[in-house]
Amino acid sequence: MVRELTVPVPRLTVITLGVSDIRASIAFYDSLGFSRRLKATGEAVAFYDTGGPVLALYPWDQLAADAALPDNPRPSTFRGMTLAWNCRTRAEVDAVLAFAVDKGAALLKAAHETDYGGYAGYFTDLDGHPWEVVVAPGIDVGDDRRVHLAE
Hints:
By secondary structure, the chain is of the alpha+beta class. It has helices at residues 22-32, 60-66, 90-102; strands at residues 14-19, 35-37, 46-49, 54-59, 83-86, 106-113, 119-124, 130-135, 139-141, 147-149.
């Protein structure tokens, strides 16, 4: 008898960032205005409501161990991944970049016109995780804070 595999429903639910100093990273993401949930976890792990997938912060060495990956050497260059903070307007992009830098982020690339008709810039968090702040054609941000993609 051949068993048919049930195809699971694909979904991205949590993005976990490995961080060097959980206390400092919690303070940083709190200061950006993300809403922390499940605070009972203390400083073991932090979960944030982002209006979409959950953002989690977890100590770098423990995250590496959990994934059965080496803790060292830690990458000091681009890791092949960015996070994005989509905005409604170009003015909002500028405001978010300035706000993040004021809260301790490092400006990686100033906001600029993109070749696809958008407007974007980059900052990095305390551990160098790059965030793109962007307004892009075909991607709208609703009142629910979720992105809505054109067909």
